[in-house]
Design goal:
alpha/beta, Aspartate Aminotransferase, domain 1, Aspartate Aminotransferase, domain 2, 2 domains, four-stranded mixed sheet
């Protein structure tokens, strides 16, 4: 049995000074057993905790480490740039270089604005949609997460098209009254919302690959339907690609499905492991952002040279021929290995994946497209599964609702070991 005594001591100390001992809720391990693991080192596909335990990491800092931990090329670029200063609060050449790298290789955006997080990117994109359109309401979908933006921290009420209600204390209901929450994969609900509120809907916001509440893969046809309805009504289509952007392809889900949104939010991978976010659109839309237009948005650390340098180094490697095909093949190999075993054993378990993103669902459904299709009791089996994975040196996100990620640093040996551990963990979870 692995020892976590040093991590436990660090957590007890942290609880004296940090709410729940953490700076982001899922890190508190409330969805699994025990206290959080404190990591001290990462290299390639591996991490090491405060107690010296080694893990093959499939969390990858929740996705941005597509090259693995401490990639040599990224570190070299960052070290070179950082030696000349870490922040200026002024323009630097690296923000233009990264913007050019993205825009030149993404057919659906013409200009981009860098911010410091995915939440900030989504918040800014929503403001831009309202400022550009002169309309107020936003449509979002249950099971899609757009950061902890006040107006988007909502859940649906009853009916097919309903105004949202707040899901967090501290958010006045007036802040979310302009948000319409719909079920995923439901055309009737979209049509009803447009019929009732269409004259005042600024945008329809969606994760084209919903990956914050399980992996709720949508039919391409539903996304095409959203594009068609937005074209017919003049509503902006906003793809939140903070997770899927540069992860399933360089052009993210937009390129993967061949669907052009009007606005896109980015994050994770474009920072190379540093805090970053961005939103982009056509020049016509982006020219409404200050200082060119009336939609104000600013940030002291936006376009930080260190984060920009890391992003450049990482995305240049992502552009190499065959990069995404190789990642997808690795994910397919892992999924096939584990799923075949689960099927042989008759376990009600399904492993979903798209590109290099995967999710383990503890049910026998081979399609899960909405949040209400997830069995809330599955979390109990996940706890057993998660504990056994830790014992065998495999780390995934500490919640049954979180997805996993493959990096280019994961070797075939890593995948074989992980598959073996997952099979053993499944046997224990379903014993």
């Amino acid at each position: 049995m692995i020892t976590r005594s040093k991590s436990e001591a660090l957590y007890e100390e942290a609880k004296k000074y940090l709410p729940g001992g953490v700076n982001s809720p899922v890190r508190a391990f409330r969805s699994v057993n025990g206290s959080p693991i404190y990591f001290e080192k990462g290299k390639g596909s591996k991490t090491w905790d405060a107690d010296g335990n080694e893990y093959i990491d499939f969390c990858c800092s929740w996705g941005p480490l597509i090259l693995g931990h401490a990639d040599d090329t990224v570190l070299a670029k960052v070290s070179s740039v950082m030696a000349n200063g870490t922040s200026f609060g002024a323009p630097n050449k690296y923000e233009t270089e990264l913007a050019k790298l993205i825009v030149d290789n993404h057919r659906y955006i013409e200009k981009i604005r860098f911010v410091n997080s995915g939440t900030e990117a989504a918040m800014s994109a929503i403001r831009l949609a309202r400022g550009y359109s002169g309309k107020n309401k936003v449509v979002k979908f249950e099971g899609c997460y757009h950061g902890h933006v006040d107006s988007l921290m909502v859940k649906a009420g009853s009916g097919l098209a309903t105004l949202g209600t707040s899901t967090s204390a501290g958010i006045p209901e007036s802040f979310v009254k302009e948000t319409i929450v719909l079920p995923l994969n439901n055309k009737e609900a979209v049509n009803k919302a447009i019929e009732e509120y269409g004259d005042d809907i600024a945008c329809i916001a969606i994760e084209p690959i919903p990956a914050n509440n399980g992996l709720l893969l949508q039919d391409k046809e539903f996304l095409q339907f959203l594009r068609q309805r937005c074209d017919e009504t003049g509503i902006l289509l906003f793809f939140d690609e903070v997770i899927s952007g540069f992860r399933v392809s360089f052009e993210g889900a937009s390129g993967y499905y061949g669907i052009k949104p009007d606005m896109i939010a980015f994050g994770k991978i474009i920072g190379g492991g540093f805090p970053v976010g961005a939103y982009g659109a056509s020049s016509k839309v982006m020219d409404h952002v200050a200082p060119d237009g009336p939609v104000y948005q600013a940030g002291t650390l936006s376009g930080n040279p260190v984060a920009m340098a890391a992003g450049i180094a990482q995305l240049e490697q992502c552009l190499k021929p065959g990069f995404y095909d190789a990642l997808a093949a690795k994910a397919q190999s892992l999924v096939n290995d584990v799923q075949s075993y689960a099927d042989e054993q008759g376990f009600p378990f399904h492993m979903f994946h798209v590109g290099s993103i995967f999710w383990m669902s503890f049910s026998n459904k081979n399609r899960v497209q909405s949040a209400d299709e997830i069995d809330p009791k599955s979390g109990e089996r996940f706890k057993i599964f998660f504990d056994e994975l830790l014992e065998q040196g495999i780390y995934v996100g500490p919640s049954s609702y979180e997805v996993g990620f493959i990096s280019s640093a994961h070797s075939n040996e890593d995948l074989k070991k992980a598959a073996g551990a997952m099979k053993s963990a499944l046997a224990k979870a379903y014993a």
